[in-house]
Amino acid sequence: MARDQRLIIGGTLLVLILTFTLVAQLADTSQLKPLSKLTGLYGGSGSAHEPIGPSDGLESVLGNITPAEEDGFTLIAPSWKRVDTLPDWIKHYASGDIPSLRRMIIIWPKVQGDAPTSLLDNVTQSNYPIPVIIDQREVNTLNGRFLKIDAIKTNSVLAMDDDMLYDPKDVEFGYQVWREFGQRERMSGFIARATNKDNNAYKIGGLKSYSMILTKSAWFHTDWMHAYWSQDERMTRLRKYVDDHMNCEDILLAFIHAHHTRKSPLYVKPYKMVDTGMKDGISAAGDHLKHRAACVSKFAEEFGQDTLVSSDAVFQRMLDNYG
């Protein structure tokens, strides 16, 4: 099914190119609002406090749908040995150009030493329109990026790495896609990946469909943080697997999400994307894809081979000079 509708809101022309493919009859798109009935995108009568409906069927896993203390979203990012570039990265997002961004939380593992005074002074003295919190933590774990802390007042979190740069307009648009179509049922974000169910290969390019959105840049509901940190035996064991391999917390979240919702994530295609960590990040290791494929195999054993749900849907904002 393909739909193409242009929305003129606040003088800005946007387009959502929406095509969904049912894969093994698992990609249920019945909960998507028809584009002709959108009311909340960039204003209107919609509200981030309003749930999609009285029930989304996830209460047994996530609890009841409850209003957020604040609307909008919180950007949370772990930082590792990027003292020189971090101030400019923070400034890029905290300068007030993203209307729905409410707060930034930078996770600073103290195993790399205390956050330098120069960084703390920069955050304190810059007087950014968006509050910035440096959350110094004693324990260094990739699982920690999904830990719900009191400073998160919104229902939406944008998990991002501190080496990713996007146009603020793309970031705002990405949040609005999640707000209208995602909520607790679907993750959304800028980096899509796929797997081969025959051999659990991890695919990063030449995709005709996708089944994961990486938390290198992804929105999800904060209730999934509680699910990720569930103290049941399986989740405790799988978090240890992530710690032991120092990898794949994003793949684990994708499996948990799909396992309970039976729905695909949503890919938002940005116009501009700069990854400054291509040379020194975890993904720069030569055996990175091998480790990722091993994680896919492990989680498929735990949750089922057909857990991940594929889609070919693409959301992209329309540029001002379209046509």
From TrEMBL:
Q: Where in the cell is it found?
A: Membrane
Provide the species name. Zymoseptoria brevis
InterPro entries linked: Exostosin, GT64_dom, Nucleotide-diphossugar_trans
Gene3D superfamilies, A to Z: Spore Coat Polysaccharide Biosynthesis Protein SpsA, Chain A
Q: Which GO terms describe its cellular component?
A: membrane
The Glycosyl transferase domain extends over 73-317
Instruction: Give the source's domain of life in one word.
Output: Eukaryota
Q: Which GO terms describe its molecular function?
A: glycosyltransferase activity
Alphabetized Pfam families for the sequence = Glyco_transf_64
Q: Which UniProt keywords apply?
A: Disulfide bond, Membrane, Transferase
Protein name in the entry: Glycosyl transferase 64 domain-containing protein
* Record-linked PANTHER family: ACETYLGLUCOSAMINYLTRANSFERASE
